[in-house]
């Protein structure tokens, strides 16, 4: 009985963590909606102020990157939502199209307990799950692509320092709690996946756990990837400035270049949890920590 209670608690905690991530992301965006609008207006002004063809070409290249990422998100999330819908209502549809002498079993890939008769109200139960997952996917695509677009814009401009503090204070700071929730959910979903594969009794649980593991892995990688891009671009500013023919410039412009180099001796970055600099290395460290927690949970089972 105790073992069943622990498994039920872990299962509920994993889905609750994912739900909290989406809710926090939505309300964080809602709370800073005016700041985000002002930031987007600044981006629009930056685009309108560019007159040089080469500058426009560079900024267009960065905008194409975020367009491709948005399309990839849609290509991944929309089919997953369709598969989830068919997984829930597939047997109901088959009962209508190809009826049998008996009703096909109606199950859902997510083990959630409601205080109602789930078989009697299965349609409302299934629609509720589909609405929640659709809302979560929509929130992720809309908000995450806006944030990533902002960071890509920073990479395309030389005036990075005028925006970096705003993103750190308004957006990145909320990722601290999201990382902790994602770490908990990821560890539990790996445990659920390993347990399901070992027992080979519940195909729906294998499917749902695998999908969540993949989604959380991608979710953790993308912000760290763009944070790494900021680090790379800020370090390139120093190198490019150093390699210019600065000695041919007037004294005043040489002093300006010296000022730029001094400001870029320390790479621009985003700080997570007060100490960790968002990058590929931190992403790998978070994955290692999640697998360590998974081993602890698995050894206790």
UniProtKB/TrEMBL annotation:
A GO biological process held by the record: signal transduction
Keywords of this entry: Cell membrane, Membrane, Olfaction, Receptor, Sensory transduction, Transducer, Transmembrane, Transmembrane helix
A single MF term (Gene Ontology): odorant binding
Localization annotation: Cell membrane
Pfam families: 7tm_6
Annotated transmembrane regions: 69-90, 121-143, 172-194, 206-222, 270-298
Keyword Transmembrane attributed: yes
Membrane topology: Multi-pass membrane protein
GO cellular component, one term: plasma membrane
Annotated protein name in UniProt: Uncharacterized protein LOC107966034 isoform X2
Species assigned in the record: Apis mellifera (Honeybee)
Gene expressing this chain: LOC107966034
């Amino acid at each position: 009985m105790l073992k069943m209670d622990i498994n039920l608690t872990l299962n509920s905690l994993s889905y609750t963590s994912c739900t909290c991530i989406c809710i926090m992301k939505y309300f964080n965006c809602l709370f800073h909606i005016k700041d985000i609008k002002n930031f987007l207006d600044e981006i629009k002004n930056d685009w309108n102020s560019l007159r040089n063809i080469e500058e426009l070409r560079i900024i267009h290249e960065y905008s194409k990157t975020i367009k491709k990422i948005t399309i990839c998100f849609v290509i991944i999330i929309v089919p997953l939502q369709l598969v989830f819908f068919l997984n829930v209502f597939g047997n109901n549809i088959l009962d209508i199209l190809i009826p049998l002498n008996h009703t096909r079993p109606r199950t859902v890939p997510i083990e959630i307990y409601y205080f109602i008769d789930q078989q009697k109200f299965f349609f409302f139960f299934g629609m509720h799950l589909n609405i929640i997952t659709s809302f979560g996917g929509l929130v992720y695509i809309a908000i995450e692509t806006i944030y990533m677009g902002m960071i890509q814009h920073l990479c395309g401009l030389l005036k990075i320092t005028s925006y970096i503090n705003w993103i750190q204070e308004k957006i990145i700071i909320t990722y601290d709690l999201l990382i902790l929730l994602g770490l908990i959910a990821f560890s539990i979903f790996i445990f659920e996946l390993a347990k399901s594969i070992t027992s080979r009794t519940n195909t729906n649980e294998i499917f749902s756990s695998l999908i969540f593991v993949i989604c959380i892995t991608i979710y953790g990688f993308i912000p760290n990837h763009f944070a790494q891009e900021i680090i790379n671009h800020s370090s390139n500013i120093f190198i490019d400035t150093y390699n210019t023919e600065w000695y041919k410039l007037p004294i005043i412009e040489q002093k300006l270049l010296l000022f730029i180099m001094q400001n870029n001796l320390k790479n621009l970055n985003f700080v997570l949890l007060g100490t960790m600099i968002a990058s590929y290395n931190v992403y790998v460290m978070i994955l290692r920590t999640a697998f360590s927690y998974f081993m602890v949970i698995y050894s206790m089972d």
